[in-house]
Amino acid sequence: MSNKLTLYTIIAAFWCAFLVVLGVNLAGNFVMPSEEHLTKFGYPIEAVEEESGPAEATAGGPRPDIKPMIVAAKAEDGVAVFRKCASCHTAEAGGKNLTGPNLHNIVGDAIGDRNGFKTSDSLKAIPGGKWTYEVLDDYIENPKHLAPKGTMSFAGIKKPVERAAVIKFLMSNTENPPAIDVAAPAAAAPAAEAPAAAPAAPEKK
Ligand code: HEC
User: Fold this and answer.
1) Whose alpha carbon is nearest atom 25 of ligand 1?
2) Ligand 1 centroid to residue 101 C-alpha, Å
3) Cα 91 to Cα 197: distance, rounded to the nearest angstrom
4) pLDDT tens-digit map of 55-87
């Protein structure tokens, strides 16, 4: 077979594949149930398409009450989530500032001016001036929501359970985190009062 013929064969094969894909897509439009249909049967279309599902609020949307979730969360689970932060933050006592400030003792603390880090005016302007659990949750979900001109270039963590875990991790790196005033289930309460010893921060690169 000549090289030219082989080339034509390959091109023809690609065209066939393309047409098949096109055909399947078109057919799909006819057989796909409508959004209304899906919703009626209790499967909102977002649940099918979005990895996080409908309960996970998007930026600006309603956020679930994070406190009971923090009580239930494990600091150990937060270690894995904190890997997303660790390129810019340390959390242990005496840790260095990286692109962002060291986050030791952050929970309940005043916003900004940490460890000599130059805080943006936008972050300093957050109402209340304190890292309460709600403010932390809001900021970690979408840093631009509370500090539109803040300098933390991070998309945010959309899953409440991951935010709860990373906040629990930050609590375990905070000497006196504020008490969480939720009617916690009896089993979870002791964990809230005495956070476990700080698990090791993820490896730095
Ligand atoms: C790309 C780098 C980067 C990543 C990733 C990042 N941050 Fe930040 N973070 C920053 C910078 C820069 C600031 C300073 C923001 C400002 O001053 O506006 C900051 C500030 C903060 C503050 C406020 C500290 C203060 O000064 O009071 C908190 C809390 C925080 N980050 C938590 C996190 C958490 C939790 C994660 C991971 C889920 C994370 N950050 C991921 C860069 C980052």
Assistant:
1) 112
2) 7
3) 13
4) 444 444 578 999 999 999 999 999 999 999 999
